Amino acid sequence: MLRGPRGHLRASVVPAAALAAALLSSFARCSVAEAGERGSSSYFGTKTRYEDVNPGLLADPEAPQRDPRLLQGTCTPVQLIALIRHGTRYPTAKQVRKLRHLHELLRAHGPDDPSVAAAGGGRSLAAALADWPLWYADWMDGQLVEKGRQDMRQLALRLASLFPDLFSRENYGRLRLVTSSKHRCVDSSAAFLQGLWQHHYPDSPPPSVADMECGPPRINDKLMRFFDHCEKFLTEVERNATALYHVEAFKTGPEMQNILKKVAAILQVPVSNLSADLIQVAFFTCSFDLAIKGVNSPWCDVFDIDDAKVLEYLNDLKQYWKRSYGYTINSRSSCTLFQDIFQHLDRAVEQKQRSQPVSSPVILQFGHAETLLPLLSLMGYFKDKEPLTAYNFEKQAHREFRSGHIVPYASNLIFVLYHCEDAKTPREEFQVQMLLNEKVLPLVPSQETVSLYEDLKSHYQDILQSCQDSEECELPKWNSTSDEL
């Protein structure tokens, strides 16, 4: 990858057409499009396909991903609580407008400089991009796509096969569903239910969600979009122009500026007409074409793997500082959701101890990457020794916090409560396992794959007892009284 001088680039067209031709030749050999087949498409951050995190699904997307560490034998699962991110979606209207602007920029500058072809570059990548159909429209605005519905149906089939007793036909009417009000989440919950219907009634088309025995999901934004209801987060992070300092600093840093210069050469446009935001939307267009249509578009050929790592880091910086460890309120704003999970688990334990049927054996909650990341951070997961900053990209090459590996489309965090009995003694106990994206998630800080329920509660005692939403999200009260006479 080209290494330019530190600082801002001059507002001019990159002059050497031969440079563009050489770059095109190099990228054709090592582009994101080609590398996608080798798993490098996992650099798309929160826009990563679920199957790039679970490659086994590429061969059979309906086969259950049984982790050998899952409890078996004398332990019976009695409750499952799943927090599920919506499936694959369209770009937002804001992203579509940026892409349209980039497309118009390409057409305005008339790609296919004759000197590039004369240098052996042939028909340029810029020309291919200018001719590539711009099929995204404003109305799409983050809605769930058919691939996203398929993500949910297939996840339902796998979980039903993995936990047949919990997802039994008898329990179908006792499913408890909660969703964010966003259409992509509501539609994801409906597709999940259709997948369960397919599991139980493979020869019968599913009825409408309203006519299903379990009924439609309940919308609860205070639970699934808690960040919209936390005034401290909204004031100190969401609406704070300086909260994402490291994101903006990285955009003007050497790594991003090198990409900016290189892409300007490829697209044959002035550097002054490009920005880090436009570069990022071009990269995400590669991800959308791949995730939605399964197509390696020419946009993927613009970037090599080194570029992908830089652009992934830019996305991770935003998630880190806005949704994770960057500010304490990011994770503390999710304490209501965390406590809600344990209230359900408490109730299941109490009912089982009284020899009563568990009233809600399966609880499904549909939200966003922004729902899962703060919760996982609250629980202490994926925390690096040093914070992610605009200045330590190379040191963070092997970081724990990679949002595409944690919260791709259709990502899921699952709590499984087990009732365990020892045949030799009358002792009974309750144990818990957690799964992230269908893989057992070792517990913090023990790294064990299973925990006694009481031990888990003890570890998170502070959050369960002292993390009150009304206090965490309340802005400090300033003394407005005046000493003036």
TrEMBL record:
Cleavable signal peptide = 1-33
Q: What is its EC number?
A: 3.1.3.62, 3.1.3.80
Catalytic reactions on record? 1D-myo-inositol 1,3,4,5,6-pentakisphosphate + H2O = 1D-myo-inositol 1,4,5,6-tetrakisphosphate + phosphate; 1D-myo-inositol 1,2,3,5,6-pentakisphosphate + H2O = 1D-myo-inositol 1,2,3,6-tetrakisphosphate + phosphate; 1D-myo-inositol 2,3-bisphosphate + H2O = 1D-myo-inositol 2-phosphate + phosphate; 1D-myo-inositol 1,2-bisphosphate + H2O = 1D-myo-inositol 2-phosphate + phosphate
Chief location of this protein within or outside the cell: membrane
Q: Which residues form a coiled coil?
A: none
* MF annotations from Gene Ontology: acid phosphatase activity; bisphosphoglycerate 3-phosphatase activity; inositol bisphosphate phosphatase activity; inositol hexakisphosphate phosphatase activity; inositol trisphosphate phosphatase activity; inositol-1,3,4,5,6-pentakisphosphate 3-phosphatase activity; inositol-1,4,5,6-tetrakisphosphate 6-phosphatase activity
One GO cellular component assignment for this chain's record is: extracellular space
This chain's protein is named: Multiple inositol polyphosphate phosphatase 1
**Which organism is the protein's source?**
Jaculus jaculus (Lesser Egyptian jerboa)
The beginning of the lineage is: Eukaryota, Metazoa, Chordata, Craniata, Vertebrata
